[in-house]
Amino acid sequence: MSCLALDPKVIASGFAQDGNSGADAVDGQASSLTSTNNFINFCLTVPNLPITNGQQIESGSCNPAPIGAIPAKANMPSAKFANPANGATIAADKAFTVQMNIKNMETGTFVNAAKNYFAAPQQLNGQGQIIGHSHVVIEELQSQDQTTPTNPANFAFFKGINTAAKNGVLTADVTDGLPAGEYRMCSINSSSNHQPLIVPVAQHGSLDDCVYFTATNGGGNAGGNGGNAGNNGQNAGQNGQNGGQNAGNAGQNGQNAGGQAGQGGQGQGGGRGGGRGGVRLSSSLSI
To answer: Is the separation of the CB atoms in 38 and 6 below 8 Å?
Structure first.
C-alpha cells in the first residue's frame, strides 16, 4: 500500500452528498461534510492538529487512516461479564479474576500501541468477524446510584486482554484486588489497531458491557459461605421435620394395621401391640 494516487475504483460517490435531500432526510439533522476524493486530505483542514502517525497524542491529533472493513449485521460483536456479576459483593484487597463472555469477534490480536495506534484500517477474518482484542477498565464510584459522569482519566484498574478467548471467555487477573468501595467495570472491545469497533448499522445493541459491584472488608465469599451455611441448616431442619412426619405416618400405619388385624380374628392384643408399637415409633422419632 505505497501508492500515493487515489484509485477511482474506491471513490465513494455518496460522500459528495450532504444528506439533506431525499425521503430519508430527518428534520433537525446536520449537514455532512462532503468530498469527491474520500477526504484524503482532510487533516489539512485542521492544521492546528498534528497527524496521529501511530502515536497516542494526549493533546489531540488528526488521523488519516480510513475506517476499513465493516462486518455484516449478523456478525456484530457482543459481550457480557460473568464475574464479578452485576450487583455482586466481593472481598476487598483480595485477588480475583474477571471473566467476560464474547461472541462474533476474533480476539487476541493487537499491534504496538506506541507506534501503530489507529495506524491501519479495521480488518475482518475469513468468517467476516472483526479482528481485534479487548480491555477491562474498573472505575471507583462515589456510590452505586451516582449520576455525575466519571473522569475517564482516572481508573482503579485497567488491563488489555491480549490473549484469545477460550471457549468464548476472556479473562483478566486483578492480582492486588480492590480497596473497599463501589465500582463500575466496563469492557472496551477494539480492533487490532486499538480503534473502537465499527459496525454496519446505527441502531444496534451495545458492543460492550458494564456491571456495577461492591468491594467490602470481610465480604464476598465469606458472606456467601455464611449464607450457604444458614441455608444448609434450614434445609437440615426441614429434613428432620420431614423425617419426623414420615415416622409419625409409619406409626399411624402400624396402628391401623394392628387394629385391622385384631378385627380379623388375631386378637385385641395384636391390634394394640401393633398400634402401640406404631405410637412408640412416632413418639421416639418426633423428639
So the answer is: yes
- For residue 220, what pLDDT band results from cuts at 50, 70 and 90? low
Q: How many residues does the chain have?
A: 287
**Ramachandran sector of residue 285 (left: φ over 0; alpha: ψ -120 to 50; beta: rest):** alpha
- Are 62 and 42 a contacting pair, CB within 8 Å? yes
Phi and psi angles of residue 177, each rounded to the nearest 5 degrees, phi first = 70, -165
Integer Cα distance of 189 and 102 in angstroms: 10
- Indicate yes or no: pTM above 0.85: no
**What is the C-alpha separation between 138 and 210, in angstroms, rounded?**
9
Q: Which residue has the cell 475469513?
A: 126
Phi, then psi, of 197 in degrees rounded to 5: -65, 140
Say how far apart CA 153 and CA 118 lie, in whole Å. Answer: 19
* pLDDT tens figures, 70-110: 999 999 999 999 999 999 999 999 999 999 999 999 999 99
How much is the pLDDT for 218? 84
Q: Report how far residue 230's alpha carbon sits from residue 160's, in angstroms, rounded to the nearest whole number.
A: 40
Q: Identify the structural domains of the chain with CATH numbers, from first to last.
A: 1-40 (no CATH), 50-55+64-240 (2.60.40.10)
Strands 89-91, 78-83: pairing is unpaired
Which pLDDT value is given to residue 265? Answer: 37
